Amino acid sequence: MIMVSMKQVLFAGLMTCGFLLAADAVPPVTFVDHEKVAAALAKSAPLASAPGLTVSGSHRNAAGQVEVHDKETDVMYVVDGTATLVTGGTMVGGKVTKPGQWLGTSVTGGDTRHLVKGDVVVVPAGTPHWFKEVPSSGVSYYVVKVLKP
User: Fold this and answer.
1) d(CA 94, CA 91)
2) Residues in the chain with pLDDT < 70?
3) Which end of the chain is less enclosed by CB atoms within 10 A, N or C?
């Protein structure tokens, strides 16, 4: 017969709980099928989220407003179409639309880039960015938002 002390039982129980909690801390794998992806790219919709990030499909048929996200870095991958994107500089007419989110009317300064299929742009949190020109044929792109705590 094996004798076990109460301390050993408690230690074993705590270790088991620790392993179970650690296992729960790992988010599950997310799979999004091609039909949902196509729909998200056609009408701009969320695809997935996990701790610290979100993934969306986006489509624009026209220019947008200047955006600044205080705690979100945007990683954009163009999958179809073209657009002119301005990043950096100083936002003009900026107003807080919700906590940590700003919208403005234009940018002074900044860098202008012509985006085409296959381009990737990383816009750090706090950086103005503006889809200044988008043809009527539009631009489709993925956005991964990396969230700061």
Assistant:
1) 6
2) 1-25
3) N
